């Protein structure tokens, strides 16, 4: 029997629409709006397209103003489809955003969330995370602080076990990080730290870090870690991928890692320090910490042919000798190109 697109199963149509809308980014309001318009138009193609298009539409939701929140909360299909990715934005820098109450209502009604970002809320209680709708949460991008008292936080019981946690430069307070780490100490494998050693929550980060360090496979350092935190890096016995911002003290960080570790991927961002980084790595590629290195990623760097001019050629030669694949990004680091 001949078949048409109307004969395709629901799951296949949803997968096709999900792939065609994957290029739209939630971070951009314009891109997010274009994605919604595209999926709305798809839902009008035929009756068989309606449910798959709606499923894709609800799979990734960004709510960044009260108008959008009102539309979401009043939708007749709210709760019928799972939302894998949810992005909630509070009021910040004078821009229109959600109140903590509205964000709590959304989290109480949207189900199936696996990826959640909370950004720039002034009065959002950590109680919103104690929600059965978040039982399947795997990734939390935390860009907001919670105003709750320590007694309130200590009584919380989160239903999820995170695999990935992103911590930004916020004062989370002395209690929330130990609780988050404790809830996910056996499941957390990826941690991104964009913090500041002067933050009020930094001591709690240092206190809680040992509980998750042995299970971490990916660590991204987007700040210059304090000596207290660096001294704990020897606990990263399962680490396979390390990512470092150019502000990171690279030699101290590498020398603090376990000599019996499994590090195989090293990602570095450069500033004016290509020559310094090249010297640090070249002198350590024969050492125990980098003995298993397979990939060196430099996403922002001079073009490969320009490494010699900027002092990186010995590093490339050493990587060839050791069988290490060097992945140089297509985006050129403009700071580095300012070298004479």
Oligomer classification: single chain
Largest sheet: 11 strands, parallel
Report the total helices: 12
Number of strands: 11
Evaluate the radius of gyration.
23 Å
Q: How much beta, percentage-wise? A: 15-25%
Q: Structural class of the helices, strands and pairings?
A: alpha/beta
Which residue ranges are poorly predicted, with pLDDT under 50 across at least 5 consecutive positions? 332-340
Helix content: 25-40%
The topology string of helices and strands comes to HHHEHEHEEHEHEHEHEHEHEHE
Strand order of the largest sheet: 1-2-3-4-5-6-7-8-9-10-11
Approximate shape: globular
Protein name: Proteophosphoglycan 5
InterPro entries: LRR_dom_sf
Task: Produce a short descriptive summary.
It comes from Rhodotorula toruloides (strain NP11) (Yeast). 33% of the residues lie in helices and 15% in strands.
List keywords for this structure.
340 residues; alpha/beta; eleven-stranded parallel beta sheet; 11 strands; globular; disordered C terminus
Write the layout of secondary structure elements.
Blueprint (H helix, E strand, L loop, with lengths): L9 H11 L8 H15 L3 H13 E4 L2 H8 L11 E5 L10 H10 L5 E5 L19 E5 L6 H5 L9 E4 L8 H8 L6 E4 L8 H11 L5 E4 L5 H4 L10 E4 L5 H7 L8 E4 L5 H9 L12 E6 L12 H10 L2 E7 L9
Parallel strand pairs: 1-2, 2-3, 3-4, 4-5, 5-6, 6-7, 7-8, 8-9, 9-10, 10-11
Helix pairs in contact: 1-3, 2-3, 4-5, 7-8, 11-12
């Amino acid at each position: 029997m001949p078949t048409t697109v109307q004969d395709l199963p629901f799951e296949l149509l949803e997968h096709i629409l999900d792939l065609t809308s994957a290029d739209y980014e939630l971070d951009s309001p314009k891109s997010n709006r274009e994605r919604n318009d595209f999926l709305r138009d798809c839902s009008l193609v035929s009756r068989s397209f309606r449910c798959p298009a709606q499923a894709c539409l609800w799979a990734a939701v960004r709510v960044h103003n009260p108008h959008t929140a009102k539309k979401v909360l009043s939708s007749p299909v709210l709760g019928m489809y799972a939302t894998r990715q949810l992005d909630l934005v509070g009021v910040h820098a004078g821009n229109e955003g959600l109140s903590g109450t509205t964000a709590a209502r959304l989290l109480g009604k949207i189900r199936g969330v696996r990826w959640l970002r909370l950004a720039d809320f002034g009065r959002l209680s950590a109680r919103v995370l104690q929600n059965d709708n978040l039982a399947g949460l795997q990734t939390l991008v935390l860009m907001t602080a919670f105003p709750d008292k320590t007694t309130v936080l200590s009584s919380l019981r989160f239903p999820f076990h995170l695999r990935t946690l992103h911590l930004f430069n916020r004062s989370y307070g002395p209690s929330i990080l130990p609780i988050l780490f404790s809830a996910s100490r056996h499941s957390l494998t990826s941690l991104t730290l964009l913090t500041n050693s002067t933050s009020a929550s930094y001591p709690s980060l240092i206190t809680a870090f040992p509980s998750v360090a042995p299970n971490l496979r990916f660590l991204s350092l987007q700040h210059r870690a304090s000596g207290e935190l660096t001294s704990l890096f020897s606990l990263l016995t399962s680490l396979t991928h390390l990512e470092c911002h150019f502000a990171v003290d690279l030699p101290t960080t590498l020398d603090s890692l376990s000599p019996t570790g499994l590090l195989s991927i090293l990602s570095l961002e450069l500033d004016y320090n290509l020559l310094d980084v090249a010297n640090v790595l070249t002198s350590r590629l024969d050492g125990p910490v980098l003995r298993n290195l397979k990939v060196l990623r430099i996403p922002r760097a001079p073009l490969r042919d320009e490494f010699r001019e900027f002092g990186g050629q010995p590093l490339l030669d050493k990587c060839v000798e050791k069988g290490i694949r060097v992945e140089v990004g297509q985006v050129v680091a403009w700071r580095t190109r300012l070298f004479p």
